[in-house]
Recover the amino acids of this structure.
């Protein structure tokens, strides 16, 4: 296929699902991929354009290919065009818009904040007038069947597009054609404004277990709808953001970033971490004399820091998870903290005992002096560290939440840093009490 | 409300959305909550039962409340009953099943592996015979309108329930009643078996951008369907699992765990981490003599370990994200690694320069000897550490993926441990070359 006759390749590929064609294009060298796209019929090209990987766009940034894509873009309805452009690298998307009849609207939609309801809503939804009938809705669906790519709840509006309610699809089937819309319509219980944050949209949908939300403007006029597919997109975007923040990467990072964007999304977090480890370093520095006497203590720095880090991250992960699933802990806060503390205490006793016994039994054979004191120091320090890191990790996300900050940021840097500092501070304090 | 007349409270609560009633119950003391549930009418109780928080179940584990819930459970269709029971703590769910007419089936469904397609599919889906007509499907929907709580694609089967295709809802509206099903039905392009892993279900749906999947048994007989809502559930479960694994918590952990389950889901990871930090400890131990001479070096252990940890976790988070969004990097692997390395090198130069300059300028004033050598040691070590941790972190998830292991495990423990060990090893090796 790669070198062969274009026509033959095309015939073979034509009947594949679009996702497989895209995969093929990715695996071809860019020259061949470009040629294949150029000879593609419009319909296939349109499919490919709407599914294509952002990485491929960069590969295909040649004038000829762009001209073809511009032509295809003009054939898409506005919803699909925006969705598509939104997934591309911004400069390339703005480039493609040039010369489009709705260029201004597309540009405005592209510049909407990605985290708002308006960035996710579908504009081309079905609407019905409140003085209409079921039969009129069905006639409308039939007339527009070509352009509608999904059927969902039909929103009911008045003459000025104010949201009045909605009609479920099933009711279109259950009721006769001459049933008035007002008779079967449900009141508009759940709606959001275009400026609602996507996180709140998702929380609302999850809490009340709903699949369809109307999006209205400040005056209650219907702008669009968010349905199951959009909710799934929002939910995976939110999960991605949380994961990136927990991993210490800015949430706008993408797997297609070049070195400059890699540096921009990661370096600030590394430098923040540096401040934290600078604090740990100064704690250790203040015990320099003790270390000169007993350099063996330095070996336990990674053990204490590692354990504090793991325990803290575990606890904060669970808290972030709890917050994400809508738990507020109003009445339940103290029992929960109690369970966390008890769990941390048990873990601390086990970890302390394991490390203490290892020091006690292996220590003397590798020349460790005063092994009993060292064992006791390690055991006590690890128990305290585990309990402190556990409760700190469990609490910080809730505190950040109260301060209206994203709790996922907590695990990324703050928890790690605080645990390192607490870890070495507790360890050396215990050591100075027991070991010296 | 809390102490007042039950009837009055009920009248007030009656018209609330179920989620708000549950929130109220959570905030009440358990005695009051129990009383409120007991006097609730069946319909409200059913709603509450299906939305209720697992935590509340434990609160309500009294015989009277259980008897009421058992009665309500019998009124649910099987799909909803299973969904509901599946969200409860297992022992309590098994307890509630007692005496249910379909106890055996419910128990079997509960014991299905949660990660398989069968655990997510809806059983009570609409089906049509391939020799039927559109009108027959509509009549069926009308007859069953009470029990069906969502309308979706109608699957077409033959006399032995073999999957033959599906009819889109819109086609029920677009075509006349006497249109034969075979004429409008679409071929069964996308289906999974009951044993398909939920991760693969999600990957398939995402790749081909589909909202409806049929679930069949080994002989191609239709068992159920997975639609947008189920896909959203799977996607948030997978995201939750990834996040927990990255946080070093076993994926079956829940925010309602008591201390024993907290210990069980976290202690193994802490102990694994201990092995890793034991390795770092022995690396440091082998440089004990050097440390006795220059205890100041110990201060830089947290700086090196912290930076290595952050850089490694960042890189592996991005790789996990890339794998999650379906990237395989077949042809693209080397350019990607190149970008990562270049990004890491830039970060390393900046971090190395910052720390090096700090040591150079502040060091002498706090009595650090041979500050220039120490500054050079830190700068060189941090540059190398950043590049090693960056490429290691980026690669490990892909290697785990190739070995059919969950890449998210990587970040949780392996990356952290490896980075600690590499960090101190590189630092002390560089120190012994430059500083001594």
């Amino acid at each position: 296929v790669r070198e062969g006759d274009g026509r033959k390749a095309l015939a073979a590929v034509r009947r594949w699902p679009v996702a497989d064609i895209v995969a093929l294009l990715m695996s071809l060298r860019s020259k061949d991929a470009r040629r294949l796209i150029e000879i593609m019929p419009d319909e296939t090209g349109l499919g490919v354009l709407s599914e294509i990987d952002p990485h491929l766009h960069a590969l295909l940034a040649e004038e000829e290919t762009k001209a073809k894509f511009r032509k295809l873009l003009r054939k898409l309805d506005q919803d699909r065009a925006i969705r598509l452009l939104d997934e591309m690298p911004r400069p390339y998307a703005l480039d493609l818009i040039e010369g489009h009849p709705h260029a201004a609207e597309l540009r405005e939609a592209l510049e909407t904040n990605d985290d708002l309801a308006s960035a996710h809503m579908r504009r081309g939804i079905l609407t019905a007038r409140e003085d209409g009938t079921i039969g009129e809705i069905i006639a409308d669906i039939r007339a527009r069947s070509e352009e509608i790519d999904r059927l969902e709840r039909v929103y009911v509006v008045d003459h000025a597009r104010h949201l009045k309610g909605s009609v479920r699809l099933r009711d279109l089937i259950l009721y006769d054609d001459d049933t008035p819309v007002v008779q079967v319509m449900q009141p508009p219980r759940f709606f959001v404004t275009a400026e609602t944050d996507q996180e709140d949209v998702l929380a609302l949908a999850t809490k009340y277990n709903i699949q369809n939300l109307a999006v209205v403007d400040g005056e209650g006029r219907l702008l669009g709808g968010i349905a199951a597919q959009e909710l799934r997109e929002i939910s995976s975007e939110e999960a991605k953001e949380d994961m990136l923040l927990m991993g210490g990467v800015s949430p706008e990072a993408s797997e297609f970033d070049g070195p400059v964007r890699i540096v921009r999304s990661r370096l600030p977090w590394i430098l923040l971490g540096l401040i934290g480890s600078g604090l740990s370093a100064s704690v250790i520095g203040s015990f320099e004399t003790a270390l000169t006497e007993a350099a063996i203590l330095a070996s336990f720095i990674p053990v204490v820091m590692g354990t504090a880090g793991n325990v803290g991250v575990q606890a904060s992960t669970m808290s972030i998870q709890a917050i994400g699933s809508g738990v507020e802990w109003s009445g339940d806060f103290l029992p929960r903290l109690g369970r966390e503390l008890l769990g941390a205490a048990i873990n601390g006793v086990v970890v302390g005992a394991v490390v203490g016994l290892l020091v006690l039994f292996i220590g003397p054979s590798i020349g460790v002096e005063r092994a009993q004191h060292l064992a006791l120091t390690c055991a006590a320090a690890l128990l305290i560290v585990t309990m402190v890191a556990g409760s700190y990790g469990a609490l910080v996300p809730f505190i950040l939440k109260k301060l209206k900050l994203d709790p996922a940021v907590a695990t990324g840097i703050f928890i790690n840093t605080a645990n390192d500092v607490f870890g070495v501070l507790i360890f050396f304090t215990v050591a100075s009490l027991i070991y010296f």
About this structure: Chain A touches chain B through 116 residues (CB under 8 Å).
